[in-house]
């Protein structure tokens, strides 16, 4: 019996950085989530949210689903909807990269653009308005427990297994916070203490996939007590590290992954004999039109 495409979500590589860490007693490992079928860490929660809602009877194939997205979740949901037979409406700010919109459309999703001045907050409000108008059902990655559950059941156990339980520090960019919440809960249950480090943008930094939400929009799935500390990264740090990952490690990643590495290196400078894992959320080809990777 041959596998179908959803069977290849997860089980992504965990690779050691060789050049960027320079002389150190620490091991820095990158979890390559761009290797998922739709190219990001969001494949896990996207499939989880639709499949579990279907199993509960909340939705059925042919229904229309709605989600506000800054890109990767939208692409992953568009793929999952195509696999499982749903119509998908994605609401996103107009200034997000053209590549993302094109990929969502390729999977058959309908895209609703909101003015860039309103950022993701306006996109979320618009999705609510569409839902209230009877246009479809919102999955709501920001409050849906099936989002962090996907990482609790798959991402974190994979890291634990691939490090033979030796991981000491886990570094993850924070957007919806699903990845860091699910992984933190799993690592908390293990005997060895794993320090959980969240990554947020410095004031005025616009790093796709990393957010510091206003209080009113804070994801309901977020539990601050599960995060040991939060490190801030600048736009320049995130972009430069993304370029260095490609040039020095052969890893072509997105900008939020550069931010996560910048934070991981800050952690590494403070500890010894540590095993530091950071999440590479997606691939760099989603950001070519942004000018981050000079031609």
Describe this protein's structure.
This protein folds into two domains: 5-35 and 153-287, Rossmann fold (3-Layer(aba) Sandwich), CATH 3.40.50; 42-138, 3-Layer(aba) Sandwich (Rossmann fold), CATH 3.40.50.1100. It is 36% helix and 17% strand. The protein contains eight helices and ten strands. The strands form two sheets. It has a six-stranded mixed β-sheet with strand order 1-2-10-7-8-9, sandwiched between helices. Helix 2 runs parallel beside helix 3 (98-106) and helix 5 packs across helix 6 (178-188). The relative contact order is 0.16. The mean pLDDT is 95.
Give the ordered list of helices and strands.
EEHEHEHEHEHEHEEHHE
Strands of the widest sheet, in order across it, are: 1-2-10-7-8-9
Helix content: 25-40%
The largest sheet, given as strand count, sense and whether it forms a barrel, is: 6 strands, mixed
Keywords: Amino-acid biosynthesis, Cysteine biosynthesis, Lyase, Pyridoxal phosphate, Transferase
InterPro entries: Cys_synth (IPR005856), Cys_Synth/Cystath_Beta-Synth (IPR050214), CysM (IPR005858), P-phosphate_BS (IPR001216), TrpB-like_PALP (IPR001926), TrpB-like_PALP_sf (IPR036052)
Pathway: Amino-acid biosynthesis; L-cysteine biosynthesis; L-cysteine from L-serine: step 2/2
Enzyme class: transferase
């Amino acid at each position: 019996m041959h596998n179908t495409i959803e069977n290849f979500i997860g089980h992504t590589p965990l690779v050691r950085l060789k050049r960027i860490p320079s002389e150190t007693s620490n091991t820095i490992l990158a979890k390559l989530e761009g290797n998922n079928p739709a190219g990001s860490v969001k494949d896990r929660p996207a499939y989880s949210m639709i499949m579990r809602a279907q199993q509960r009877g909340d939705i059925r194939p042919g229904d229309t689903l709605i989600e506000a997205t800054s890109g990767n979740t939208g692409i992953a949901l568009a793929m999952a909807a195509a696999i499982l037979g749903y119509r998908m409406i994605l609401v996103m700010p107009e200034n997000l990269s053209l590549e993302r919109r094109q990929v969502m459309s390729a999977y058959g999703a309908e895209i609703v653009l909101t003015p860039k001045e309103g950022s993701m907050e306006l996109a979320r409000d618009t999705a609510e308005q569409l839902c209230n108008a009877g246009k479809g059902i919102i999955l709501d990655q920001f409050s849906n427990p099936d989002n962090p559950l996907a990482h609790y059941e798959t991402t974190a156990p994979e890291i634990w297994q691939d490090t033979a339980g030796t991981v000491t520090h886990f570094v993850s960019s924070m957007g919806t916070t699903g990845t860091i919440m699910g992984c933190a809960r799993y690592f908390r249950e293990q005997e060895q203490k794993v320090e959980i480090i969240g990554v947020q943008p410095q004031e005025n930094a616009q790093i796709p996939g990393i957010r510091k939400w206003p209080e009113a929009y804070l994801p309901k799935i977020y539990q601050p007590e599960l995060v040991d500390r939060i490190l801030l990264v600048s736009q320049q740090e995130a972009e430069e590290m993304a370029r260095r990952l490609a040039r020095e490690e052969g890893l072509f990643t997105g900008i939020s992954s550069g931010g996560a590495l910048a934070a991981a290196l800050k952690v590494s400078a403070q500890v010894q004999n540590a095993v530091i894992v950071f999440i590479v959320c997606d691939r760099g080809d989603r950001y070519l039109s942004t000018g981050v990777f000079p031609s």
